[in-house]
Structure formats: structure tokens, C-alpha cells
Specification:
2 domains; 284 residues; 9-stranded mixed beta sheet; Arc Repressor Mutant, subunit A
Length: 284
């Protein structure tokens, strides 16, 4: 007794027409007729009364129909459930080079909806093997030209120092930061890249005395007045203590745009997460 054989019987019992069943399954009517006859032989009784080209379900056929219909419905329901669940099971490789705190919150929310999705999260600023990542969070870069993207956040950039730093009480131009010690995220990060870019425009190379890959310790070094640091105004909002002050630089007005990049070969779950955060920001 085969599953397809039972499906042929189920449809034939409902239509009482082998030709209509054959049409549904795109097979010759003889295939349906032979399959039903084989089923009757296996069971040991007729399920249809035949009169020429017409068939009608008999009492024994009706008894079997009820049992088969229930079994097929339960089977199809289980298959459908497994299919839906399989879409919720998977892995997302994500490289977060910017906005760690923001993205962490979105991951928490997404995991509440899809608890079986596993995130592999990296913060590597120097990897060149970006194709292994499904999603990348970073500021603008020509290195992601093969990825789809949408702007996640645009925010003003500020230079900050410990509140007791004498520069905090002055009106400055950017070139006046020449010779100061700078604190920065490590090489390859957008913060490091932008620090060098902005200072270069002002005519000097920043004297970076501390590089760190952890934003928490960058903020601590600023508090302790180890040096000046470029910081994002929105994503670090509430993270800087009262011991940190923004410098008043009259000729500096720059913004950083952070993007969510999607690998075009990413699977269902990565696309779902990408669209999830995209919808959040499109609705703002």
C-alpha cells in the first residue's frame, strides 16, 4: 500500500471519476484505474461499484475513505509544520563593525520570534574573507559592492575628551588638535578610518596613542583623559559618562552613515533578519 495509491483512491472517492483524478495528477486514467484495482486486491474487497465507464463508492469504500482522509490530512499537516519549522532553523553569520549595541537589541528581538536561528557574530575589522558573512554592519565601503544594502543610521560625529581636558573650555578649529594624543578603535574600523580622514583634511596625521577593538574601553580611556576620540553622537548616546565632554570645533560638521549589507547568496533566515531590521528603520 503506497501513499500515492491512497491519494488516487481519496480523490477518486470524492469525485467518483477516475478521469478527473488522472487529470489532477497529470497521469493517464488507466494509471488511476490500475492503482485503485491494485489497492482493492491488497485489501481483498471492492471499493467501487463499476457500471461501464462510471464508478461509485460502495459501503466498504466509504469506510476506507473516512480513515484514509483523516490519515492524509494528519500527514499533510505534519509535513507542512515541519516545512515551516525548517525555515526557522538555521544559521546567520554576521559581521558587526559598527553599531554593536543597536544590532544586539535587534538580534534579541529577532531571537524571540525565531528562537531556533543561531547567530555567529564577529567584530573582526581586518578580515578580507567577507563572502563568508551573510550580513555585514559597517559604514560606507567600496569593498561591499557585491552586497545589497540599506542605510541603517546616519549620525553626527563629534570629538570628545575627558571633562578636565583644557580643550573642553575652548572654541577650536580642527587643525588645533594637531599634536594631541588620539584614542581610536583599531585599524580597519570606521572610527579609525574616519579619524585619519578628518585629520588629514585639516592638514595633519593624528597621533593615535591607544587603539582598542572594544567600544566600552574606548569610552573608559576618554573618561580617564588619556586623549581625544572621535565618537558617534547617536549610537553612543547614554553610554558616555558625565566625565566626558564634546569639543566645540567650529569648522567640523561630519556625519557617518552605517549600512546593513546583505550577501546576495544569503539564505532565507539571513534575508528575513535583513528585512526585519530594514522594516524597523523604514517605518521611522
Amino acid at each position: 500500500m503506497e501513499l500515492l495509491q491512497l491519494r488516487y483512491f481519496l480523490d477518486s472517492a470524492e469525485t467518483e471519476n477516475f478521469s478527473k483524478t488522472a487529470e489532477k495528477y497529470t497521469v493517464p486514467p488507466s494509471s488511476v484505474s490500475i492503482s485503485v484495482k491494485k489497492l482493492e486486491n491488497e485489501i481483498g474487497c471492492s471499493l467501487f461499484d463499476r457500471n461501464g465507464n462510471k464508478v461509485s463508492l460502495n459501503l466498504k469504500g466509504k469506510l476506507l475513505y473516512g480513515a484514509v482522509k483523516k490519515a492524509i490530512e494528519e500527514l499533510d499537516g505534519a509535513v507542512s509544520l515541519l516545512s515551516e519549522r525548517s525555515e526557522e532553523i538555521g544559521e546567520i553569520n554576521i559581521l558587526i563593525r559598527s553599531e554593536r549595541r543597536v544590532i544586539m537589541q535587534h538580534i534579541i528581538e529577532f531571537k524571540e520570534r525565531f528562537p531556533n536561528v543561531v547567530f555567529h557574530i564577529m567584530h573582526d575589522f581586518n578580515t578580507t574573507d567577507i563572502e563568508k558573512y551573510h550580513i555585514i554592519i559597517d559604514s560606507h565601503s567600496d569593498g561591499y559592492s557585491a552586497f545589497k544594502r540599506f542605510p541603517l543610521l546616519s549620525e553626527k560625529m563629534r570629538f570628545a575628551a575627558g571633562k578636565n581636558n583644557p580643550l573642553c573650555d575652548k572654541r577650536l578649529t580642527l587643525d588645533m588638535l594637531y599634536g594631541q594624543g588620539f584614542i581610536s578603535m583599531c585599524e580597519g574600523s570606521s572610527m579609525n578610518r574616519l579619524t585619519k580622514e578628518y585629520c588629514k583634511r585639516a592638514g595633519f596625521t593624528p597621533n593615535i596613542i591607544i587603539e582598542c577593538d572594544d567600544p566600552y574601553y574606548i569610552r573608559k580611556y576618554i573618561e580617564l583623559d588619556f586623549g581625544i576620540a572621535l565618537v558617534p553622537e547617536i549610537s553612543w548616546q547614554g553610554e558616555l559618562s558625565d566625565n566626558v565632554k564634546y569639543l566645540d570645533i567650529i569648522d567640523f560638521d561630519e556625519r557617518r552613515v552605517t549600512y546593513a549589507y546583505l550577501n546576495k547568496s544569503a539564505g532565507t533566515n539571513a534575508v528575513r533578519f535583513y528585512e526585519y531590521i530594514k522594516n524597523i528603520y523604514n517605518s521611522k
